[in-house]
Amino acid sequence: MIIEYQVKYSNRKTLNISVERDRSIIVRAPHHLTAEKVDEIVQSKRQWIKDKLSHVQKYPVVTERKEFVSGETLMYLGKNYQLMVVDEAIEGVEFDQRFKISKSNQPKANDLFKKWYLKQALLKIEPLATKYARNLGVQYNQFKTSEMKYRWGSCTPANNIIFNWRIIKAPVYVLEYLVAHELVHLMENNHTPRFWNILSIQVPAYEKAKNWLKKNGQLLEVDFS
To answer: What is the number of H-type helices and E-type strands within the chain?
Structure first.
């Protein structure tokens, strides 16, 4: 098997290999490693990479899209809520156990819902980051939500934690797993037994959360047409 991968150099201290959900392979390496040394390490991990590539959580980008019609459903915190398209003037998105949006805003539905989800992500996820950082005794630099193409979250070499805004569609226990996961990386770079042990103490139901993402992760990618 020929392993094709992309290398991203930074000021990090150790090399990290990740297989993204689209099955692309990203190698994050410190500046001092030569291309030959990076390739040597990657090749030594061939079996691990092969196992990751065949993992059920790896899936293609979803092509299904939601229709902008009354009766359609949208996910929020793990539940589906009905969308109502109304004649009345609504500036953005309203939510009270169902979503409401103005018919006049149909052409910009994606942008309005993304803006709403981004706001909810900040409101719901950042307090979790504060909570788990305190529990773990770690400090992060910045908290961000962003459009992340193939990841749910990331912990950068500058100790910034970044989350895909789409995870706000997942249940709260999944959010807790994803937040704690990235913060544990401030203590342990790689997914070692120590990493999973620390995470299991913080989020005992982390396996349940992982399984939810394996089964339902692609649903978080769905947009409006």
So the answer is: 6, 12
